[in-house]
Structures are given as structure tokens and as C-alpha cells.
Specification:
Blueprint: E1 6-22, E2 25-27, E3 34-36, E4 41-56, E5 61-62, E6 74-78, E7 86-90, E8 93-98, E9 105-108, E10 111-120, E11 126-132
Antiparallel strand pairs: 1-4, 2-3, 5-11, 6-7, 6-11, 7-8, 9-10, 10-11
């Protein structure tokens, strides 16, 4: 998901166990005082919930190409099957290089990376994009 992109957030099988104590009572007819009858009873209940809500993405996107000593961060991808590859650099480190110019996202070490906005298109068959995570 990109920044400001709507998505659904879902939770399922969230449960909360509750207990309460019940004590039967009766009212004395002459003095009108209440007195307990029998032993207290503990009643337990497990409540399970599921919910879905709409939220707005907060992913951050960045792009840099070795300007003023800022390490490279970009998604470089082919534009057709004749240039069928992509390369992703984050903070100067190449984190992904693979076939598939059509690839728009991947997960690495539990982090989801997504191809962002195109920033530089090329007549040489490759485009440069932001990297979002």
C-alpha cells in the first residue's frame, strides 16, 4: 500500500473473557432488609469479536540518485518484455534484482516494498521509480 492509498484493516477472533458474581437475595417482610440466599455463583463468558475498518496508508516513499552524498534509493525497471528486469536499491544497498519488469511489489525480511511513482522515464527501455515501504 502506498501513502494515502485506502485499505481495509481486519481483525478476527479477538476474544475477551469476562466473569461476574451473582448472589441471590430476598427481602425480609417485616424489617424490609435484604439478606443473601445460598452461595454466590460465578458466571463466565467469552466474547469473540471480528471487525473491519477502512484506513489510509502511511507508507513512506523515497528516491535519490547519489546527489550530495545521499545514498541511492530507487526502483529501476524495464518497460517491456525486451527489457524484462528490475533492480531496487535502498540507502545505497541493492536489495533486489530479478526478472519481471511488471513486478510492482515484493517482501524481503518481513518488509513489503512497493514500486512508487515514476520519476524518470527513459527511451532506453528502463524507468526509475520511488521505493515505498
Amino acid at each position: 500500500m502506498l501513502k494515502d492509498e485506502p485499505f481495509n484493516q481486519t481483525t478476527t477472533d479477538c476474544s475477551h473473557y469476562q466473569t461476574r458474581t451473582r448472589q441471590d437475595r430476598e427481602q425480609e417482610t417485616t424489617t424490609l432488609e435484604y439478606r443473601n440466599v445460598g452461595e454466590p455463583t460465578i458466571i463466565g463468558q467469552n466474547n469473540t469479536y471480528s471487525a473491519t475498518r477502512t484506513a489510509t496508508g502511511t507508507a513512506s516513499c523515497s528516491y535519490s540518485r547519489s546527489v550530495n552524498r545521499v545514498p541511492d534509493t530507487y526502483w529501476f525497471a524495464g518497460t517491456s518484455s525486451s527489457s524484462d528486469a528490475y533492480l531496487v536499491k535502498v540507502n545505497g544497498v541493492q536489495i533486489k534484482a530479478a526478472d519481471g519488469y511488471y513486478t510492482t511489489s515484493f517482501t524481503l525480511n518481513g518488509i513489503r516494498y512497493k514500486r512508487g511513482t515514476i520519476l524518470k522515464d527513459s527511451t532506453a527501455g528502463y524507468n526509475s521509480y520511488e521505493v515505498c515501504k
